[in-house]
Every structure is written in structure tokens, then in C-alpha cells.
Amino acid sequence: MKKSPILEKLLEVADGDTDTLRELDSNGDDFSIPREVEFMLLADSKESADNAADIINDFKYGTAEVLSEEGVYSVQVVIFMPVMQNVILSISGFMQCFAQSFGLKYDGWGCMVQKG
By C-alpha distance, which of 24, 34, 25 is closest to 78? Predict the structure, then answer.
């Protein structure tokens, strides 16, 4: 069975997400504790970053902020949530699809370790 490009990308993202969860687990993280999780989207221009951030904020997908460093634009999306595998993989997959739909590059997520 041939996989579509989006399915291939989602599987790739899920592998990376699982690696991140393993790293958090090795540091004693309690995945069920909600925390701020940062998702990063990379943009080719300020306009595309602004458009993506506006949509994310307007639809309350998270709190988006456009960042700029040396002419490189990105959108940081913060969501307060637990990082249980089924939850984080769903949101991360959504961010991948969102990024691809708007011509952005999804660069993954990160958070601080939370211990009970």
C-alpha cells in the first residue's frame, strides 16, 4: 500500500514525538500533569507567520506569537495540556497538518518535565 505524503509526514512526526516522550519519561515526567507545551512552526515570511498566528489565535487552537530572529520568522504556539501519548500525538499531528496547509514547516514541540 502506497502512503500519501501527509501520512508519511505524520508517521515521521509521531516517531519524533515518541522519542521526546521517552526522554521526558527518563527524567521522571508525570505525563498526566498539565503544563505549557510549546509548538514551533517555521515560516518563509512575516506575512505567512502573521496569517498562521492570527488563525490559531482566532480559533483558540492555542496562544500563538510570531517570533523573528535575523530575518527568520516562526510561530510559537503554547497550549496548556497534559502530554499523555494519545493527547500529544493528536495535537502534534494537527500542528503538522496545519503547518502543511499554510505552507509552514512544523518543527516539533517541547515542554518542561513535570513530576508529581
Answer: 34
